[in-house]
TrEMBL record:
Gly residues bias (residue ranges): 96-114
Mode of membrane association: Multi-pass membrane protein
Location(s), subcellular: Cell membrane
Hydrolase found in the keyword field: no
InterPro entries in alphabetical order: ComEC_N, Competence_DNA_uptake, Metallo-B-lactamas, RibonucZ/Hydroxyglut_hydro
Stretches the record annotates as Disordered: 1-33, 82-155
Domain Metallo-beta-lactamase, first and last residues per copy: 670-842
Transmembrane feature ranges: 55-76, 407-426, 432-448, 479-497, 536-560, 604-621, 628-644
PANTHER family: DNA INTERNALIZATION/COMPETENCE PROTEIN COMEC/REC2 (PTHR30619), RECOMBINATION PROTEIN 2 (PTHR30619:SF1)
Keyword Transmembrane helix: yes
Protein name: ComEC/Rec2 family competence protein
Amino acid sequence: MRGAPDPHAGRAAVHAASSGRLGAAHPRQEGPTDLRLVPPALAVWATAAVMLDATAAWVTGTVVVCLLAAGALLLVRRRAADGGGSCAGQGKRDYGGGGGWGRNSGGGNQGGTPAGDPGTTGAPTGGNQDRGPLPEQSAPVPVPVGRASRTGGGPVRAAWPRVSVAAVLLCVAAAAVSAGLHGADVRSGPVPELARQYATVTAEVEVGSDPRLSRPRISGDHVAPASVLIQGEVRRVEEAGGTAVVTRAPVLVIVDAGPHGAGGTGPPRSPWLELLPSTRVRVVARLAPAAVEGDRVAAVLRVRGKTAPEVVGGPSGVQRFAGRLRAGLREATDGLSADAKALLPGLVVGDTSRITPELDEAFKETDLAHTLAVSGSNLTIILALLIGAPGTAQLVERRGLAPRLGIPLRTTALLGGALTLAFVIVCRPDPSVLRAAACGAVVLLALATGRRRSLIPALATAVLLLVLYDPWLARSYGFLLSVLATGALLTLAPRWSEALRRRGVPPRLAEGLAAAAAAQALCAPVVAVLSARVSLVAVPCNLLAEIAVAPATVLGFAALATAPVLMPVAKVLAWCASWPTGWIAGIARTGAALPGGGVDWPGTWSGAGLLALVTVTVLLIGRRLLRHPWWCAACGVLLVLVVVQPPPLTRVITGWPPPGWRFAMCDVGQGDATVLAAGDGSGVVVDAGPDPTLVDHCLRTLGITRIPLIVLTHFHADHVAGLPGVLRGRSVGAIETTGFEEPADQARFVRKEAAARHIPLTHAVAGEQRRTGSLSWQVLWPPPRPAPDPDGPNDASVALLARSGGLRLLLLGDLEPPSQQALLRSPEGALLGGVDVLKVAHHGSAYQDPELMRRVAPRIALISCGEHNMYGHPAPSTVAALQAEGAVVLRTDRDGALAVAGDGRELGVARD
């Protein structure tokens, strides 16, 4: 009996036949895609997600059942194999007589290797000559006997499904053990019990990730103070009685960020932000249970009144080295524009500490947020310099610098491994970075195997091993999106790219468009769950941004590497990288600014399923439309109109804003933002609301591109926090505010925004009169100095009386009864009678002066308030008092945005 042939002989012959030193191969020479690792990977993923919360009894039961079932299947397979030798041998002999590459439809030995020699198959002859030789195939290719025998007789063929099922069961058992142990680590020990008691403890915490600042959050009329968030592990905890316990429990540490930096206007610069991973600190903190059950946090540690951390153990040498590299990159980017300075460290190493909330929101709305986090694409770009782009492996397995420099294949793989290790060190070995490294390592595995189709089993292997190593990844949305995006690039993108090329699309454009569309198709349902929104501009934005991602990343990594030794060179490289980085930021801002750039979507898994169904339907229809260029062009034009929403066309279709509108109240939630029409595309904006996105959307639907004046009635966050949205893409003449600059942090915020755009800032005083076009207005409050200080920011609100087209509009800001009464007694109080429209003070709160409402007696009263707000605005008593004076009361929480049109005789209100 002959010995088993070399299993690599077939691949060697293929490469030998290619007659190219770079190892060319055609995909048709590969076998069908190997999906055997996909079921175990999915089984491990699902098991880990479920078993993290399971009890010990459930975990034990699952493991025992899986092991018994797997053992039974393997035992049955062994007995079948022992009794099926003759059948297996016949299977080999039948395979050998099958006619080589042909289909063997006629049986016998037509044009193939003789039946007595099962070792190889020849080129197709005889009945199979119609198929012809495969591309790049000029010599017989040996086929291993072992693989042929697996497809032979009945008993052996039936045994393999049993082995596959047994393998899945064994993987489920392993995942259950790993998840059970990791879940128990979070639930066991003294920390969870102390958290349930809200105990104050002294703990020693090892920092596990880079500290980060919480995003600003509007809470009522103020901005919640920023906090430093640190993921770490409690290694030692001391209770109030002095008992010390050594433990290991994952926690989230929350520390007050402290005062702002950069002259009081920059982000907080807390010494806690300088901590490196693996540093150990001692804290006195109050424990609290995790906000979300089933999360990878045993407790929350709230540290108060601690200005600096007490370090008891320094970081490791590796983390110090990585910290110096990251700090060097930040220093190299210090002189760049604001967007480039913030974005480049995020693109390179995932350092988002400088990303502003506005820029972050723009990237989320355009589905470009993945560029701000460490992902497999970062590593793939670097590896592409060495071994070529992974997508080109379909036709040529090796490109890049390595083959052109004559570096052997194995040495190239080792260099790629070293790059991957350096990537993990610099970007921190936390789960997200490990996930990125595993997904990027798919390229190395493809290189090592020499087969494009090995990418799928490589991805499955990465998922399986990573989830077994860290079962919490099974519940990570970031991990899910990374796997989906990678799977889309490996499965859908090549087929779609080929289809586009067949229809005349240039190859590079086809490849980029297919990659962006495939990733969006698979990831959009998950993104919808996270953001309750579907982006209509994600594909073009990602396609345009992809042009700049590679040069920005390569130049950024070069700056990172040279910063510790040659800072001037690093600054030059960072400056070069700022151009593509600025392009990416511009794409994000432009896409986010489009009025129809996204649509709201149910943020549930049912909504995700519906979006997946819609996506499949669109793809099926689109496949048919590709045969009709005119229909494709019509659909493209229609999509552009939906996204751009030209104001003239929008006004005709929706009726918003109404023709001749004079005054509009935006729906910005619990806050104020109103617009006085001042001509075609021009308007005076009074207050900016709490959310930049909402007020920007409102101004775009109104067609406002020029703002001669912004009036901020007072500095509460629900009136000024949306200022960046008002300024976005519009020319602004000046900003006018009250002279009472409290709260101080929001006053600093307004000054910073005005200074950044060189907009003059002035104070409004009673008696001031202005005019622009047909709009005129007069300031009624606050009185000029010397006037007694108001009781608070609300009583210092700017009040305006505006006249437009015969209408009189009164805007009272957030004035409360003391200032309302004083306004009635002031000289300006004589102007309050006969008002057509009243913007009710303080969101319609109960604190209103009855005499003021009787004096004003408006025809229409508008109230700006948020749906289900915690303050109960508007108060029923206020609404009843206004209606008793004959006013029609409208409110944004129920009626949406409101626009008033008409003149002194006729008056109408339109709703958006």
